[in-house]
Amino acid sequence: MKTIDLQMNTVGERLKYLRETLGFNQVEFAERVEMEQSYLSKLEKGHKGLGKRLLKIMSSTFEFNENWLLTGEGEMFPEKKERSDVQENGAAYQSPMLRGPRGVTSYIPEHLIKVPLIGVNARAGFVENLDNYTEYISDYEYVVPDYGVKYDKAIAISVDGDSMEPGMQRGDRVLAFFQEISEWEYLNPGIYAVVYRNSFVIKRIMKNTLQATGQLELISDNAIHGPITVKIEDIKAIWKVTELIRRRLY
Asked: Alpha-carbon distance 195 to 30, whole Å?
């Protein structure tokens, strides 16, 4: 059994102790909070400072005592009761627990909406099984809901590639809402996730020409990537991207 180093005089040393208590190696811990392992290593060694935003992401993921991490005072994990106020697509949902390899549990923050996450590795199955894609979802994202918005057809998407840089970078997660076929000809300019033929892309629509030409031009924000012209009969599904949920930290 691996011995955990109990020297915890700095934030970095306490962060390492927290990670080892949860039973994660650096790669596993970093993936949970969408951070590079190299950045986590620098935090633990004290070569980087822990910012407020990253602290909030970590504490909401693992539900530890922020004051303990920053000062060493108090308990590492506050006592928690299981909550039932997380919503799954707008319905009451029993708050799930995040369980580490050593059995330490944490809770998803309250008042959030649970939506299916389409990861990079899941895209092939997602495209092939659009009618029943929820059966192939193994992960979810939790978003802060807007009043009056219905999330029953919302998905979260992991951004892949560099075609939408600098606004969207590889590893970012965005929220997107399904657009009915009857709405396609009236889509406003914006960023959309489009499934056409066997491809799944996130691109910008500058001008909707479906009604006039039967084609849609998909534009990349990164100038090194050219536009893509897609015929309406090749389009299988469209989601409108509305917000950046989580930015990958480097």
From this structure: 30
